[in-house]
Design goal:
With 265 residues, this protein is of the alpha/beta class. The chain has 11 helices and 9 strands. It has helices at 34-40, 66-80, 92-103, 123-139, 141-152, 161-172, 176-187, 193-198, 216-225, 241-244, 246-259, and strands at residues 2-4, 7-9, 11-14, 19-23, 45-49, 85-90, 108-114, 203-208, 229-234. Strand 8, helix 9 and strand 9 (229-234) form a beta-alpha-beta unit. The longest helix is centred in the middle third of the chain and has 17 residues, at 123-139. The mean pLDDT is 94. Bound molecules: D-malate.
């Protein structure tokens, strides 16, 4: 646990070597990275925070913007004595990675943007986020989880029931205050294509071919904007590609880390 801006944050720190921070999706927790802990702990140092308001980290009533979560990540790195790291995230974790890149570009050894987008929300999207925040505040996490689940999974593959129940359990466990605060912060996030265009580090963009929340065309737009980027499309995976196709996800991440300049590894 660390204390930052009045909130206690929990995290896991596995393995050694190149520090790699992975930021979870909404409304999940660091537990969604279990397949990466199993598959990658021998390859790098994995630093996995529960973002404020999720998992076992404390909540705040409101969060000003996604910058708050990015500043929490910087505070965690300070606490661990890590100056520079590969920082990445899936979906909301990707939005926060972009916020981190805007605030602390010099701290990035590389960036990983999985099943995410660089654009801001539409007016309609912002209204839907407010409805999600109110739903969480009035009725709790369960109805939010049930509303989200159909969008997350790849319906083409009925053999995923174990992954589906895991996703549902993680979402149902999310604290309502954390859901509401993150929904409103995501609604206010700016367009980040300018950040991508300026990024000096290498960028791995990953996407499930069946992702309907942040489809492959969003990934291609990010790759077109970031000068040092590569795209990996993961066949048969929906939005949570790291959970649906962990081996392919891990392989893409492992080969990206191996491609970074020696001095950065
Ligand atoms: C996520 O997976 O983090 C969310 O679907 C992101 C979003 O709602 O934009």
């Amino acid at each position: 646990m660390i204390q930052t801006k009045g909130v206690r944050l929990s995290y896991e720190d596995h393995g050694e070597g190149l520090p790699v921070v992975l930021l979870h999706a909404f409304p999940f927790s660091r537990q969604m990275w279990q397949p990466q802990v199993e598959g990658l702990r021998g390859d790098c140092r994995l630093i996995l925070p529960d973002l404020r308001g999720f998992g076992t980290s404390e909540s705040t009533a409101a969060v000003e913007s996604l910058d708050t979560y990015a500043q929490d990540v910087a505070a965690l790195l300070d606490h661990l004595g890590v100056d520079r790291a590969v920082v990445g995230g899936l979906s909301m974790g990707g939005y926060i990675t972009l916020a981190f890149a805007r605030l602390f570009p010099q701290r990035l050894l590389g960036a990983v943007l999985a099943d995410t987008r660089a654009g801001a929300d539409t007016e309609e999207g912002r209204a839907a986020r407010e409805a999600t925040a109110v739903l969480a505040e009035t009725r709790g996490a369960a109805p939010v989880a049930e509303q989200m689940l159909p969008k997350l999974i790849n319906h083409g593959d009925p053999s995923r029931s174990e992954v589906t129940s895991r996703m549902l359990a993680l979402m149902r466990a999310a604290p309502p205050a954390g859901i509401a605060a993150a929904s409103r912060a995501m609604a206010g996030r700016p367009d980040s294509f300018d950040v991508l265009r300026r990024l000096a580090c290498s960028v791995l963009v990953l996407v499930g071919t069946e992702d309907r929340v942040t489809p492959p065309e969003e990934a291609r737009k990010m790759v077109a904007a970031a000068p040092h980027s590569r795209l990996v499309e993961i066949p048969g995976a929906g939005h949570l590609s790291n959970l649906e196709q962990p081996d392919r996800f891990n392989e893409a991440l492992r080969s990206f880390l191996a491609s970074l300049p020696q001095r950065e590894r």
